[in-house]
Amino acid sequence: MIFDDIGSFPLPYGMSREWVERNFETREYAEMVRRAYLMKVNAGVELPNYPQFRDMNRMFLDPIKNQEFQDEPYLIKKRYATIPEVEALMDMNLDSLRVCITGPFELYYREFGAVIYDDVIDKIAKSVARFVENLDENVVKCVSLDEPSLGTNPELQPSREQMEFAYSRISFSGDVQIHLHSPLFYTEVLEIEPINVIGIESARDERAMDFVDVEDLESYDKFLRVGIARSDIDGIVAEYNSRHGVNVWGDDEGIMDAINEIESSEKIAERITKSVELFGERLKYIGPDCGLFSFPSQDHAIKLLESIREAKSKI
């Protein structure tokens, strides 16, 4: 099993999301991305995602909607389907990288709502595929399509045919993950051929693992990415506060204590052990449930990643 991360990461002290959106094409931003990537590597992440500092929808929708970049509405020209963060990291001569791309249904939903029109989702799906096509497959070992609304938003219900033609556009020689925030939708992905790894979040609610049948995975030759460390920092701190009758919000050391206690390496190791027992060889990736952007600082996020590294070493 490979230790990866979903992608999003806290900004350095003094930086704001507004500054990032204005300056993501600058050298300063590229260096900020490289430093954060190395932090992940040094914390023990075996297949780090590029540090995702920007809004996961805007960073793809903005270029897709830019008329100067389009072949036609919502279909981006291939040469413009690039991710500045990935390009910044390519200058480092990396051996391996994970790349998250917001999935076609999430982009469609954020732009148009839940009623899906085939011609529009087709163009958005082609645009997503072009971002994948421009990746260097010698370096990028895994592409992850982030679809948080599938299975969590009852209004968004793509048909099997819509899913098949949307995801059939993806052509990639490495692993193709789909990151689902709920396990309820995993059966809808089993027959989608380009996707070979299904990601579920189970650290916050370990019962999520029980929804996945290993025989399904074996029958369709799919693998799992299992979230084995919580990324809901609000919940972690609230649980710590309740347990000790304190309030550590705004206290960096107190929040670090909360992470150490609530998400200890021992607790994470228990979840890894459970996931191995349930899924065996079908378990291919482990890591945090979701992105870590909401953590108060990069140091706090790194602490969680280090705890995962320590937990994995115990298995």
Question: What features would you highlight for this structure?
Answer:
globular, single chain, TIM Barrel, 9 strands, seven-stranded parallel beta sheet
How do the strands and helices of this protein lay out in sequence?
Elements lengths: L1 E2 L13 H7 L3 H17 L14 H8 L4 E3 L2 E2 L7 H7 L6 E6 L1 H9 L5 H16 L6 E7 L13 H8 L7 E5 L17 E5 L12 H7 L2 E7 L3 H12 L7 H11 L2 H15 L3 E6 L9 H17 L1
Parallel strand pairs: 1-9, 4-5, 5-6, 6-7, 7-8, 8-9
Antiparallel strand pairs: 2-3
Helix pairs in contact: 2-4, 2-12, 5-6, 6-7, 9-10, 10-12, 11-12
Fold and architecture overview:
By secondary structure, the protein is α/β, with parallel strands linked by helices. It has a single domain (2-314), classed as Alpha-Beta Barrel (TIM Barrel). It is built from 12 helices and 9 strands. The chain has helices spanning 17-23, 27-43, 58-65, 84-90, 104-112, 118-133, 160-167, 214-220, 233-244, 252-262, 265-279, 298-314; strands at residues 2-3, 70-72, 75-76, 97-102, 140-146, 175-179, 197-201, 223-229, 283-288. It has a 7-stranded parallel beta sheet with strand order 1-9-8-7-6-5-4. A two-stranded antiparallel ribbon has the order 2-3. Strand 2 (70-72) and strand 3 (75-76) form a beta hairpin. Helix 5 (104-112) crosses helix 6, helix 6 (118-133) packs parallel to helix 7 and helix 11 (265-279) crosses helix 12. The N and C termini lie close together (11 Å). The model has no long low-confidence stretch (mean pLDDT 97).
